[in-house]
Amino acid sequence: MNATSNSPQDTATLPAPSNYQQTEPEETPSPTDTTPSSMRKQERSDADLEQNTTLLNNAAAPKWRPSTTEAMVMVTLAIISLMVSLDATVIVTALSTIVQALNATSTQGFWIGTSYLLVVAVTMPFTASISDIVGRPQTLFTVLLSFTVGTVLCATAHSIGIMLVGRCLQGVGGGGVIILSLVVFSDIVPLRFRPQYVGVLQGAWALGSVIGPIVGGAFASPTRWRWVFYLMLPFCGVGLIFVPLFVRLRRPQATLREMLGRVDWIGGVLFISSATSFLVAISWGGTTYAWNHWRTLVPLLVGLAGLVATMIWERYGAKETAFLRHSLFHVWSSHAIYFGAFAQGLILYAQLYYIPFFFESAKVYSPIRTGVSLLPVLLTLVPASVIVGAAITWTAKFRWAITTGWILATLGTGLSISWNRGTNTAAWAVEMIILGFGHGLNLNALNTASQAACKPGDEGRAVGMYAFLRSFGMAIGVGVGGSVFQNVMKAKLASLGLPTDIALHAEAYLEVLKQMDPSAPQRQAAIDAYVAGFHGVFGFLTGLGGLALIVGLFIKHFEINKELITEHKLVDESRISWRRASQDSRSGLSTADHSRMPSPERGPPVVAEQV
Question: CA–CA separation, 351 vs 355, rounded Å?
Fold first, then answer.
């Protein structure tokens, strides 16, 4: 264990947080007091430190609250995060309509959704690194512009080529928004209170992810599908106005030449190209091409080799400019946390894709009804994320949330294996409620754990790695799930004496199913084949959830009363919130006490890993 304890004297010398005044009143000694002044101050410092440490760890601890400017930053980030998550999932129920309108093939339609997720994942780490150098607001505004241009291209596309270009530009913007939103939160909110406020951001992301299929279903018609993209433009407008207006964080002072010299160009090119190659192979392996086909093996092996080369370069070649820091994996718990982020991204997005697909095929629901059927997840996932954030802030503990979250998520996923065309609404609704609670708990707890486990000052990079691996899992989830689905469905079709090609065009065949006589034996057999495919997917996801639960048990506790260290501070951070001062007075703390107590913004400067 790397535990380091600080003496009261060491704590007293740390700088006071900028959110509080640091004016200590002079102490007038009593005429009868013969104790030396220095000894009196030391005794008082020791007593105050003990008292304030106790206060910090119970309900009476002084609370951090955002200023108006900080609150507007949070609102801005929540709005654009909602936009990005909505854009990622709105395609799910509108995809078949878009493919038909553009006269695209099933393979091309597959890439409308996958290209977005792929670009989101591979550009995240490099975008975060660029923001460290040129500044958060500048980078955030640039990625918003990319998202806006991509949205316009998608909304006006008359060919699959323009649509795919637009989706890739949206992916650059979407990935940047996701990772920079979390990084900016790590710049302005102390870790002790970050779960409570990030819960709102995660809730907005979850809300968009779940209502996306509903919105997509509402506009899934040949004449209205373009509104799926037009609806994003108001969000883009708000973001392009609010980001320069409110997200005013200072950037490190440097000339253009110095900033360009600090960019890890070699590592960035290596990583983006190799990660793209790897994800392309994973996405079409077992679906578009067999796993042993050269079109799958070549990009897979090239991608893996490139990722290994990237790790070697980042470890030994990039040195100070490295954008992938090996220090983020300095303890075993970090590996477990990041695996959990990857697993949750894969499971959650695979479910957001294949659960609506189940309702449209096995239950023969309309796109709108399919979207509405996801409400049980929406009504539990979002509140669970917000509530667990407040609970972590209150208790300063997060392990319970990770364990409980994986138990519920794995249970809910496992219960879905029993679904078939005769499953009643009450049964699948209850199971989706369990699923929503599980994902909601983990969404916030894993994010907090990644920042608690890292070394002081690495919080921004830690949250960037968390967001990247979660998105990496999302990009893989649909592809891997598709491979499992097709293989299981093919086997079932063969056993029923039906053409196995149906599995290769499962989405397009839905229109054929809807036109068939409900009592036709062939229709019932085809639906049974669909159900078998879904059972295969849900079984795979259950196994992965169980593995994540076991791995998560090895995550140790880390102190979240950590120092807030960042070079990217708000321009008006010198102001003092009257609410903080008011709460300090109610807690019996003077403004001077904050210079000595291990406050949420300043806690132990070395991470202590505890059992």
Answer: 5
Architecture of domain 68-251+323-558: Up-down Bundle (1.20)
The DSSP string of 310-378 is: HHHIIIIISGGG-SS-GGGGSSHHHHHHHHHHHHHHHHHHHHHHHHHHHHHHTS---HHHHHHTTHHHH
Question: Mean of the per-residue pLDDT values for the chain?
Answer: 79
Integer Cα distance of 178 and 159 in angstroms:
28
Q: 28, exposed or middle or buried, with CB in 10 Å at 0-12, 13-18, 19+?
A: exposed
pLDDT on residue 561: 79
Does residue 346 carry a pLDDT above 60? Answer: yes
The pLDDT assigned to 566 comes to: 64
* 300-312 average pLDDT score: 91
Quote helix, strand, coil % in the chain, to nearest 5: 70, 0, 25
The three-class DSSP label of residue 507 is coil
- Domain positions in the chain are 68-251+323-558, 265-322
pLDDT tens string 68-92: 888 899 999 999 999 998 988 888 7
DSSP string, 421-443: TT--HHHHHHHHHHHHHHHHHHH
Q: Which amino acid is at 147?
A: F
- The model's pTM is 0.76
pLDDT at 564: 67
**What pLDDT, on a 0 to 100 scale, did the predictor assign at position 415?**
94
Q: Are 59 and 14 in contact (CB under 8 A)?
A: no
Q: Which two tokens stand for residue 531?
A: 């159900």
In our burial notation (b when 16+ CB lie closer than 10 A, e otherwise), range 234-254 reads ebbebbbebbeebbebbbeee
pLDDT > 90? residue 177: yes
Mean pLDDT to the nearest integer, 374-385: 84
8-state DSSP, 610? E
Taking the C-alpha atoms of residue 555 and residue 444, their distance in angstroms, rounded to an integer, is: 15
At 206 the pLDDT is 75
Contacts of residue 81, Cβ cutoff 8 Å, sequence gap at least 6? 177, 178, 181, 201, 204, 205, 208
CB-based contacts of 188, cutoff 8 Å, min separation 6: 66, 70, 73, 249, 569, 570
Q: In terms of DSSP H, where are the helices of 219-315?
A: 227-230, 232-246, 256-262, 265-284, 294-312
Instruction: Decide: helix, strand or coil at residue 609.
Output: strand
